[in-house]
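STRUCTURE:
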């Protein structure tokens, strides 16, 4: 069977055509970027028409690059970024630009609701935290959470709010545009923190809806991400160059990525580095750590959760370093004039930089970088935190700085791993996926810094899409998706820690973890 999956990230859409039989094959793929619009007030938005143009363009590319015909496609699905906020009218049209997960304009709304009361934990009202935790083992401790995007629009854009029919996440909007059916998937509803995960009570929790002041009429019906949203409409099929009537599925990136990595057993851990990044461990129960801002989020199968620790800007830091450090020196600008991001197609430049970074000794000659270019969420929440190069000296050059960027990302991922260990048992080996896993140099740095054996898989950039395709295939075939993933997804490369590098990395890591506490007040002064 042939399935199209739209792996919908922060910086681009990766559209993949898979063939699934006894194995899963990536037949054809196409990538197209779209813009991220940031504002000084913490805004981070995208444009629905840029999304749709990218989807239509990449879909048609699939058939230019393969012998498969559109009528052979038996299903399509979206694997999308999560915790966005989109207000739509009754026809599913967006009433304003989508606010994506990085948006934190709702700081005031968050503080007015959560920072009141005589007793607080992690700066939040204890009663409200406990009420949330009792319902779904998760709670809002960040102004980036989607409920505060909702409240910001309610307060600041009453015209938009008054016209709103439903409130959706990114994947829900795209599925509605394809099918005409407006719903939320269970994982999308859970990401609002208004969803009840208790057995027999699954669905919108009326008490939480009332506590946060959400209008119930804005909350769509909920379906499982293993259920078809509906059939592709004639209009959408015409835009995409497909046949109408094809079933459409949708779910979040964190929902499907663990399946695409093959990390389906309780305790299996993987690390993802694309534009953003995270550490996740599969569990058959829920856990939460309010101090480290980590929680178990829903997966594609009921009863299973991913203990999730986010890094807001992972590969985005490397993209920044490429744009502002590499492309104006090191002899690459004249030969390589274009790069998108760490997930982009310009592998020659990425390979060149990997080689150059590999010439720098472990520890980046003393330079340390903090990967907080758009604030940070875990293990500490601070939208004012920022990136820095620490301990640069006259003898350091840009190669040192670029290696420091990669090491800084890996230091933070180790920090997240260690915090996860406080609540769950993480695995060794750890699977490493996303665009970051394309570089053997980065894979070895991650192994050396974490002290874990690192495994990669085929098509590491497409693991979300692979997991999504497996969910669709399992649903069509009537088999268990976790069993199917375990059979089809295997490691293809292994990186063992080089213990000769342990001493320098241990030294630098200790300093790295101190940099936030040493500068938290300075971040507040400069970025309040």
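SEQUENCE:
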């Amino acid at each position: 069977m042939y399935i199209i999956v739209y792996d919908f990230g922060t910086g681009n859409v990766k559209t993949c055509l898979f063939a699934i039989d006894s194995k899963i094959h990536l037949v054809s793929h196409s990538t197209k970027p779209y813009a991220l619009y940031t504002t000084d007030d913490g805004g981070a938005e995208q444009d629905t028409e840029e999304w749709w143009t990218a989807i239509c363009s990449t879909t048609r590319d699939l058939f230019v690059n393969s012998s498969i015909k559109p009528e052979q496609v038996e299903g399509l699905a979206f694997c999308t970024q999560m915790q966005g906020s989109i207000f739509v009218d009754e026809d599913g049209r967006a009433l304003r630009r989508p606010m994506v997960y990085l948006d934190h304009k709702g700081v005031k709304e968050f503080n007015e609701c959560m920072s009141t009361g005589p007793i607080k934990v992690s700066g939040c009202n204890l009663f409200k935290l406990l009420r949330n935790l009792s319902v779904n083992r998760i709670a809002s401790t960040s102004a980036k959470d989607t409920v505060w995007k909702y409240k910001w629009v309610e307060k600041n854009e009453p015209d938009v709010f008054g016209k709103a029919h439903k409130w959706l996440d990114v994947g829900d909007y795209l599925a509605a545009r394809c099918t005409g059916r407006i719903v939320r998937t269970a994982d999308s509803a859970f990401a609002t923190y208004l969803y009840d995960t208790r057995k027999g009570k699954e669905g919108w929790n009326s008490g939480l809806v009332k506590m946060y002041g959400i209008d119930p009429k804005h909350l769509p019906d909920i379906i499982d991400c293993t259920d078809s949203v509906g059939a592709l409409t004639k209009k959408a099929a015409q835009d995409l160059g497909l046949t109408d009537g094809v079933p459409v599925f949708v779910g979040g990136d964190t929902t499907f990525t663990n399946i695409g990595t093959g990390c389906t057993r309780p305790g299996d851990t993987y690390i993802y580095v694309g534009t953003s990044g995270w550490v996740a461990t599969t569990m058959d129960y829920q856990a939460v750590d309010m101090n480290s801002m980590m929680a178990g989020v829903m997966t594609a199968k009921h009863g299973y959760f991913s203990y999730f620790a986010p890094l807001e800007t992972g590969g985005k830091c490397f993209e920044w370093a490429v744009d502002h450090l590499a492309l104006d020196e090191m002899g690459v600008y004249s030969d390589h004039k274009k790069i998108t991001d760490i997930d982009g197609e310009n592998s020659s430049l990425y390979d060149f930089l990997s080689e150059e970074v590999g010439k720098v000794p472990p520890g980046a000659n003393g330079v340390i970088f903090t990967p907080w270019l758009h604030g940070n969420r875990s293990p500490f929440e601070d939208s004012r935190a920022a990136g820095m190069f620490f301990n640069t000296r006259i003898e350091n050059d840009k190669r040192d700085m670029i290696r420091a960027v990669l090491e800084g990302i890996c230091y933070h991922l180790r920090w997240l791993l260690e915090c996860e260990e406080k609540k769950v048992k993480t695995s060794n080996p750890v699977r490493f996926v996303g665009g970051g896993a394309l570089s053997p140099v980065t894979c070895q740095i991650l192994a050396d810094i974490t002290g874990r054996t690192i495994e990669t898989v085929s098509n590491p950039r497409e693991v979300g899409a692979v997991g999504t395709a497996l969910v669709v295939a399992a649903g069509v075939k009537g088999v268990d998706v976790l069993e199917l993933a375990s059979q089809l997804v295997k490691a293809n490369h292994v990186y063992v820690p080089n213990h000769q590098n342990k001493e320098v990395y241990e030294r630098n890591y200790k300093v790295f973890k101190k940099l936030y506490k040493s500068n938290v007040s300075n971040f507040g002064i400069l970025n309040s």
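REMARK: The chain is about 35% helix and 20% strand.
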